[in-house]
Specification:
Helix content is 25%, strand content 21%. By secondary structure, the protein is α/β, with parallel strands linked by helices. A hairpin with a 6-residue loop joins strand 7 and strand 8. Bound molecules: benzoic acid (BEZ) and fe (iii) ion. Its cofactor is Fe(3+).
Length: 272
């Protein structure tokens, strides 16, 4: 094995003026070479890899981003989340944004119902606080989830505009409340190379039922997270590895439907 090959290649970047670019590209070369050597990659396997990446690129357009789906299913996205999220145990943990977030949803009143689909009713409520326990008033809370058919509005022309998407402001006590329906587990898009990769490797494409939250408040770090249903059969085998134990919630049965009480804790931005 000729170890000097790797050295020769990393040396080719010696004049790279940007220190961070140099660090990233030389580390990439070292890891790529180590990977090929570890698995004794054959020429045929290399070609199939190139074909797979080419097909992944061809599947991308203004809406579909197959490379992000590849990053999600290889766990790279959640590693990035881990690298870049706070590690303050008092604050709510983050989770993946996913491809179905939509900006520009109309703001709804405290306690509004975001569901225009039939389903099992759920009352979601709680408060947004900072790590000292102080309520965060006026925080923007955006939520989105699938309908019982496992599709987000936007994927499904049968669903009314804005279905199961909400935008709320916390009140003076930091509280939020809205009505919705119980989310459903659903498959990530499987009609592309990533779907083929999952089949070829004996993996399922399902995400456990969840509701996404994005919370923003002045002087606080924004939070992108999701709450996962404890009773979902895929809660321990999420296709994109987004589930964290602290984000698993119980849907508590009540007279009609369920109640979910859940607080969120934000981190104050560091002052410059
Ligand atoms: C989602 O939860 O919406 C999602 C996340 C990653 C990949 C596909 C879907
Ligand atoms: Fe989702």
């Amino acid at each position: 094995m000729n170890e000097s090959l790797t050295h020769n290649v990393t040396e080719a970047f010696v004049h790279c003026a940007d220190a961070r670019t140099k660090e990233i590209v030389t580390a990439l070369v070292r890891h790529l070479h180590a990977f090929a050597r570890e698995v004794n990659l054959t020429n045929d396997e290399w070609r199939r890899g190139i074909e797979f990446l080419t097909a992944t690129g061809k599947k991308c357009d203004g809406i579909r981003q197959e490379f992000i789906l590849l990053s999600d299913t290889l766990g790279l996205s959640i590693v990035l989340d881990d690298i870049n999220q706070h590690h303050d145990e008092a604050a709510t943990e983050s989770s993946l944004l996913g491809p179905f977030y939509r900006d520009g949803v109309k703001e709804s009143a405290f306690g509004a119902n975001i569901a225009q689909s039939e389903g099992e009713p759920v009352f979601f409520h709680g408060a947004v606080r900072d790590v000292s326990g102080k309520p965060v008033a006026g925080a923007l809370i955006e939520v989105w989830q699938t309908a019982p058919n496992g599709m987000y509005e936007g994927q499904d022309p049968e669903q009314p505009e804005g279905n199961l998407r909400g935008r709320f402001r916390t009140n003076a006590d930091g509280e939020y409340a809205f009505h919705s329906i119980k989310p459903t587990s659903y498959p990530i898009p499987t009609d592309g190379p990533v779907g083929k990769m999952l089949v070829a490797t004996g993996r399922h494409p399902m995400r456990p039922a969840h509701i996404h939250f994005r919370i923003e408040a002045p002087d606080h770090e924004p939070l992108t997270t999701a709450l996962y249903s404890s009773d979902d059969p895929y809660v321990n085998s999420d296709a994109v590895f987004g589930v964290k134990p602290s984000l698993i919630i119980e849907y508590v049965p009540k007279e009609s439907g369920y109640d979910v009480a859940r607080d969120f804790t934000l981190i104050a931005k560091e002052r410059a």
